[in-house]
Design a protein that fits this description.
TIM Barrel, globular, two-stranded antiparallel sheet
Length: about 350
């Protein structure tokens, strides 16, 4: 893996924290940046309708700190004029890169012509990209999917169009809109795009370990690798990959490290948002983070039913003390491993609020 440039913006290491609605906000990005190994951070995907109508929440989503650079703002929408206005706003706040979301499969986003809806309307996509390119001076990038329909894989055609419109980096998530997050991402499409465009190309989907990142990079010849849900489960994954590239032994977090990172994240959340919202975000990360740990299913159930800062902190302490002692975690309310609470799709959840 070698560093690459998006115009004059150096991405080193060539690892990108993939934008995740309702996840990659300031607290989560801070947590990951402190662990190291990220070459580019990206905002949550932001509604241009909210931005251009002065929605306070949408404007807050563009916040970032200098230590996050290089930093990209990702926007979504289907109206060329509002996409242009939002892109100008992103440049004004100091973003290094403007990224257009053409991948979100949430019905509300697609219904209004945004996200993966643009994959079935190349004329609209072309208009949007050309409008943005004329309006901003910072690099313009795009994140796409394999296609809209399973029977019409058009990622290569979309990539060619994007390059012709002045896009300077293409990231592909190798699933269709119809797939959503089911099945496996098709990384061979990343290779195919890389072969036909001159701009850097990165891949996304199902990278949860350093070994998978290196395998996808070797198979496709891609310039960069995006990691999203894999970073929720393992906040050290970027550091581990970077250390392997440097010829070092990758960091192996202890149980105490895992407890500390959950508590650190909760503190970052509490400093940035109201208690109710912080508790909700904490449940989301805890659900991903404890997969594969002893008693993790029961812990996720208990955390899901916690409603205050005190409850969450007590449950974290209780869980890690139990696991460290070698006992079976049962949590409050009895023994056993009940069925887990269903995981929320972050793109869908954010789209509802947009």
């Amino acid at each position: 893996m070698k560093p690459f440039k998006i115009r004059d913006v150096l991405i080193s290491p060539p690892l990108v924290l993939s934008p995740m609605a309702g996840v990659t906000d300031v607290p989560f990005r801070a947590l990951l940046k402190r662990r190291g190994g990220i070459g580019l951070t990206v905002s949550e995907f932001i509604s241009v309708e909210g931005l251009t109508r002065n929605n306070p929440k949408s404007k807050r989503q563009m916040r970032f700190f200098e230590y996050e650079r290089p930093f990209a703002v990702q926007i979504f929408g289907g109206q060329p004029e509002r996409m242009r206005m939002a892109a100008e706003m992103a440049e004004e706040v100091g973003a290094d890169i403007l990224d257009v979301n053409c991948g979100c499969p949430a019905p509300k986003v697609v219904r209004h012509g945004g996200g993966s809806g643009l994959l079935r309307d190349h004329a609209r996509l072309e208009t949007i990209l050309k409008e943005i390119r004329r309006a901003i001076t910072i690099p313009l990038t795009i994140k796409i999917r394999a296609g809209y329909y399973d029977n019409n894989i058009n990622a290569v055609e979309t990539a060619k169009l994007a390059e012709q419109c002045g896009v300077e980096h293409i990231a592909l998530h190798g699933r269709t809109k119809e797939q959503g997050y089911k099945g496996r991402a098709n990384w061979d499409l990343v290779r195919q795009i890389k072969e036909v465009v001159r701009v850097p190309v990165s891949g996304s989907g199902d990278v949860t370990t350093p070994a998978e990142a290196f395998a996808r990079w070797r198979e496709t010849g891609c310039d960069g690798v995006l990691i999203g849900r894999g970073a929720m489960a393992n906040p050290w994954i970027f550091r581990q990959i970077a250390e392997i590239v440097e010829g070092k032994e990758p960091y192996d977090p202890t149980l105490a490290d895992k407890r500390a990172v959950l508590l650190e994240y909760f503190e970052l959340l509490r400093a940035d948002m109201p208690e109710f919202a912080a508790v909700g975000r904490m449940k989301q990360l805890a659900g991903q983070f404890t997969r594969g740990l002893p008693g993790g299913a029961r812990f996720r159930q208990v955390i899901y039913h916690s409603h205050s800062v005190t409850e969450v902190l007590d449950r974290i302490e209780e869980y890690f003390e139990t696991v460290a002692s070698g006992r079976t975690y049962v949590g409050e309310g009895g023994a056993g491993e009940p069925e887990e609470a269903p995981a929320l799709d972050s793109c869908e959840a954010a789209a509802v609020e947009a």
